[in-house]
Each structure stands twice: as structure tokens, then as C-alpha cells.
Design brief:
3-stranded antiparallel beta sheet, 21% strand, 6 strands, alpha+beta
């Protein structure tokens, strides 16, 4: 509810709910309910209404990857400069992206989804260099941070947002292709050492 009243608040909970595409069930009376998305919930007048439940959609363990990030000035008790959630849905062979949800907080009060980028990426191999470059160009157009005295500069927040997306793509790549993970144990044989003392 904190995100409902000041929409510029970078809520981690809201971002997670919007990323996974939940349905919020609102009760207006004992007989009347309303189902809305998390984004629509922010625009809904909650006077004399309560949130009855939140429905989470099913996720495919072998095809869907959820990543969330929070960039903040210190490790605890601070609101995020930029927070982000990404939901990658791949085909069964994990070679093509079926859909993607790209959600950000801390950019500006009206911005939640990078919609142009979300529309551009389905059907492609996300891990090809030209696809990543195209996604960055699209994100650069989508992400337009506002200027605020108590936040880092808009350019700084845009760079953070682009970096978070790149990190999410790299982590997703590591999950699907464990061969690119470097195993330091194979670098050299295990070293041993001993020290003796004479008495």
C-alpha cells in the first residue's frame, strides 16, 4: 500500500509482483470483487476496499527465469536508487525467448515497463551479440529517468538500469550453459604445504 499513495516510491514488493504478472483481487463488498494487475492496482481508488488476495501465475521450472535487483547506497535500511525485475520465458529447448518482462523502479513515477524492448525481444536468441546490442538501444530509448534533488542524476540511474539488464542476461546465460562457468580447481593441482619444528 505504500507504493499506492506515493507512486514514485521504489517498492521492491510491487516490482516483484508486477514482474511475475500477479492478479490482485480487491473486495468492494462481501459479494463484489475486482481482479486487476499490480500496475492497475496503483490507479485503483481503494476507498472502502481491501486487498483480498494476490494470485501468482504458474512458472515453468525448466523454462522461466526470474531475476530481481536492487541498487542502493548501502547494504541495509535504504530505499533503492534503481530496482529491477526480469522474467525470461524460453522455449523448451531454451534457444529462443518466448516473452520477457522488464520492470524498473526508481526511474520516474510513471515508468514501470520497458514496453518497446519487451515487444522487440520475443522470438530471438537472447545471447547473440546483435540481439543484445539491439536490446540496449531499445532500452536506452525506453528508460527516461526524471530529475530529483534527493536521487542520483538521471544519467547515472540510466547507466545503473542498463547495467542491471546486462547482469541479468549474463546470469541467465550461465544457468543455461554451465560450460562457460570457469572452474578454478582445474587451473592447477591442489597445493599442499607443511611446516616442521624441531625441539
Amino acid at each position: 500500500m505504500l507504493k499506492h499513495d506515493p507512486p514514485d516510491f521504489p517498492s521492491d514488493v510491487f516490482l516483484l509482483l508486477e514482474t511475475v504478472e500477479v492478479t490482485v483481487i480487491i473486495a468492494e463488498s462481501t459479494t463484489k470483487t475486482q481482479a486487476v494487475s499490480a500496475a492497475e492496482f496503483l490507479k485503483t481508488d481503494m476507498k472502502r476496499k481491501i486487498v483480498l488476495k494476490i494470485r501468482l501465475p504458474p512458472m515453468e521450472v525448466n523454462r522461466d527465469i526470474l531475476r530481481t535487483y536492487k541498487i542502493m547506497p548501502r547494504a541495509q535500511n535504504a530505499h533503492a536508487y534503481v530496482n529491477a525485475g526480469f522474467l525470461f520465458k524460453f522455449n523448451e529447448s531454451q534457444t529462443r525467448l518466448l516473452s520477457i518482462r522488464i520492470c524498473y523502479g526508481g526511474i520516474n513515477p510513471q515508468f514501470v515497463h520497458a514496453t518497446a524492448t519487451e515487444k522487440r525481444l520475443p522470438g530471438v536468441d537472447l545471447f547473440e551479440g546483435n540481439v543484445i546490442q539491439s536490446a540496449f538501444q531499445s532500452l536506452d530509448q525506453d528508460i527516461q529517468p526524471d530529475s530529483s534533488l534527493d536521487e542520483p542524476t538521471p544519467q547515472h540511474r540510466k547507466i545503473l538500469a542498463l547495467g542491471i539488464f546486462y547482469k541479468a542476461v549474463l546470469k541467465t546465460r550461465v544457468i543455461w550453459n554451465s560450460a562457460i562457468i570457469f572452474d578454478f580447481r582445474k587451473l592447477s593441482p591442489r597445493a599442499t604445504s607443511a611446516e616442521g619444528y624441531s625441539s
